[in-house]
């Protein structure tokens, strides 16, 4: 079997407070391969967001390893980790987190410019991605002029802007009504499958989870089949 696009090996994460130490991840293991879409379904408070943040190199684990395309992120300095995350991982949040002062196109353009892509190439890719999500006619609009579903489509396009190998999504349709959520999720799945990405998508919705390749959950700080 080919090397996983993302691998977690014995990942631990704990938080410290005045009340003491709270272990959230206690040795989590996961392999995520190119072309595979995995649902992460677990009750609130069990560590789904923590797991995604550690997997996405937004937080450092307290133990274990996070390997991205075989590279151990623990061996990298902060600048190298940031570069690896920018070049390899796309992240979609429940709330779109679009920059309100910029247009839809500019929101998809900015991460590419941060990765030193030539502006003309970045503009072309931004327009291609927005067009793929049916947003050609909305690319000059700021987020405040977009519907919730349109905002989340822009956020997905932004996550795909740097052609990541891994897509992580934290309740990407949790803030949308049922009909809009189904349409946006269908487009998200099509975009991920069409690009052969490895994807880990957290959702509370069992119907959406059933449309993915397999489902895992968090139990006692470990990743196990759901």
UniProtKB/TrEMBL annotation:
<keyword id="KW-1003">Cell membrane</keyword>
<dbReference type="GO" id="GO:0022857">
    <property type="term" value="F:transmembrane transporter activity"/>
</dbReference>
<keyword id="KW-0449">Lipoprotein</keyword>
<dbReference type="GO" id="GO:0044874">
    <property type="term" value="P:lipoprotein localization to outer membrane"/>
</dbReference>
<protein>
    <submittedName>
        <fullName>Lipoprotein-releasing system ATP-binding protein</fullName>
    </submittedName>
</protein>
<dbReference type="InterPro" id="IPR027417">
    <property type="entry name" value="P-loop_NTPase"/>
</dbReference>
<dbReference type="GO" id="GO:0098796">
    <property type="term" value="C:membrane protein complex"/>
</dbReference>
<dbReference type="InterPro" id="IPR017911">
    <property type="entry name" value="MacB-like_ATP-bd"/>
</dbReference>
<dbReference type="InterPro" id="IPR015854">
    <property type="entry name" value="ABC_transpr_LolD-like"/>
</dbReference>
<keyword id="KW-0813">Transport</keyword>
<keyword id="KW-0472">Membrane</keyword>
<dbReference type="GO" id="GO:0016887">
    <property type="term" value="F:ATP hydrolysis activity"/>
</dbReference>
<dbReference type="Pfam" id="PF00005">
    <property type="entry name" value="ABC_tran"/>
</dbReference>
<dbReference type="GO" id="GO:0005886">
    <property type="term" value="C:plasma membrane"/>
</dbReference>
<dbReference type="GO" id="GO:0089705">
    <property type="term" value="P:protein localization to outer membrane"/>
</dbReference>
<keyword id="KW-0997">Cell inner membrane</keyword>
<keyword id="KW-0547">Nucleotide-binding</keyword>
<dbReference type="InterPro" id="IPR003439">
    <property type="entry name" value="ABC_transporter-like_ATP-bd"/>
</dbReference>
<dbReference type="InterPro" id="IPR017871">
    <property type="entry name" value="ABC_transporter-like_CS"/>
</dbReference>
<dbReference type="GO" id="GO:0005524">
    <property type="term" value="F:ATP binding"/>
</dbReference>
<dbReference type="InterPro" id="IPR003593">
    <property type="entry name" value="AAA+_ATPase"/>
</dbReference>
<keyword id="KW-0067">ATP-binding</keyword>
<comment type="similarity">
    <text>Belongs to the ABC transporter superfamily. Macrolide exporter (TC 3.A.1.122) family.</text>
</comment>
<feature type="domain" description="ABC transporter">
    <location>
        <begin position="6"/>
        <end position="226"/>
    </location>
</feature>
């Amino acid at each position: 079997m080919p090397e996983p696009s993302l691998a977690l090996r014995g990942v631990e994460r704990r938080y410290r407070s005045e009340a003491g130490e709270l272990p959230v991840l206690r040795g989590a293991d996961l392999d995520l391969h190119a072309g595979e879409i995995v649902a992460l379904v677990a009750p609130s408070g069990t560590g789904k967001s923590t797991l995604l943040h550690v997997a996405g190199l937004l937080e450092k684990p307290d133990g274990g390893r996070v390997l991205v395309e075989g590279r151990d992120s623990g061996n990298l300095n902060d600048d190298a980790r940031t570069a690896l995350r920018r070049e390899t991982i796309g992240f979609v949040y429940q709330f779109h987190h679009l920059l309100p002062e910029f247009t839809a196109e500019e929101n998809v353009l900015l991460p590419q410019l941060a990765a030193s892509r030539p502006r003309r190439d970045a503009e072309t890719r931004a327009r291609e991605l927005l067009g793929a999500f049916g947003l050609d006619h909305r690319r000059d609009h700021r987020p405040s002029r977009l519907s919730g579903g349109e905002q989340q489509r822009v956020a997905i396009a932004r996550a795909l802007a740097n052609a990541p190998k891994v897509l992580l999504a934290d309740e990407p349709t949790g803030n949308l009504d049922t009909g809009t959520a189904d349409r946006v999720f269908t487009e998200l799945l099509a975009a991920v499958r069409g690009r052969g990405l490895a994807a880990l998508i957290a959702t509370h919705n069992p119907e959406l989870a059933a449309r993915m390749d397999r489902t895992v959950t968090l139990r006692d700080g470990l990743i196990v089949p759901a």
